[in-house]
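User: Please predict the structure of the protein below. I'd like the answer in structure-token form so I can feed it into my own downstream comparison script.

Assistant: Understood. Taking the following sequence of 388 residues as input:
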Amino acid sequence: MVSRLFPRMAVGLLAMALGFAPDAHAGPVPDAELRLVVDRAMKPVIEEFGIPGLAVAVTIDGRRHFFDYGLASRQPRVAVTRDTLFELGSISKTFTVTLATSAEIAGKLSLTGRIGDYLPELAGSALGGVRVLDLATHTAGGFPLQMPDELRSHDQMMAYFRNWQPRFAAGTQRTYANPSIGLLGMIAARSLGQSYERLMERQLFPDLGLRRTYINVPADQMKSYAWGHTASGAPVRVGPGLLAAEAYGVKSNAVDMIRFLEVNMGIGQVPEATSRAALATHTGHYRAGPYVQDMVWEQYSYPAALADLVAGNAPTVNRNPVPVSRIEPPMAPRQDVLINKTGSTNGFGAYVAYIPARRIGIVMLANKNYPNEARVRAAYAVLSRLAE
């Protein structure tokens, strides 16, 4: 089997490099062969970075496959399973923008409206005149990556936003920022008249068909919640913080997350408004280096070059301003793209990527934060095989 697999992978990668589009749907891959592909992609990463546990899910035209490695907890020793809960980090932002598009579909929010229209306490401030949409695309004008440490209360946070001054004109630079998406979540929730946590856990997650995805993990589910691990190996979990839920606070498992990718590809049954909301998050609004910036999601023309994916997910992209050019009119959601998102907390590292035209996707959930490049390369190796 090995002698047949890797020549086919080489042919597939060459075809992608030359710009040949594969057929409309991925062909079936025997289970044993898929296990070999995933093991060869994941096991070296686990070993190199000392990852305690990793849950991988792959979807092929709605058929799901799960691969579990290592431990969710070292003390006591608990094995990773497809049901293990991991912190998603910034992949949480994809749910926040889906809530925002849901609010727009419901007629409660206009993404092209101004922030001050929805948060009257910010009316007249520099931030109040910025479009709500620019919060979703990290183009509001230059927020820092994290909320300032000295902010301890809601009132202090709102004073910060009132006094905030942009470093750039809105819509000219992408500066990846938790405050930006956090504020979007606040606006979406206020427009719908409920708390963010309640809207997520009582409405959006169930509508998406997610059965074990949480902001606050219930007491009876804590046994499934993995322990993250710092670089030194110490156990850690994410703590509370201002706008943490909206920016990086979701916990989920491989089963729910592969379901979420399928919904984003139009696979499976969900309420029509929920399907529309998920699809709307893939509207392209800005060109930023090698990719198009959707609402949080990043999309690459397909076939996508590995070098572009590595460059687009490099740490410098999220730490430094990136010049952008607005797409007018916005690019309608496309099938011929690769869409991805990374997410990290101090003790967890996650990656999701999928190709709508091929109806394939991958979820990688780890209980250690490790380099994005390693995540991208491992996922690419698997997706390349599935796309043949």
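That's the full token string. Residues 2-386 form a domain with the Beta-lactamase fold (CATH 3.40.710.10).
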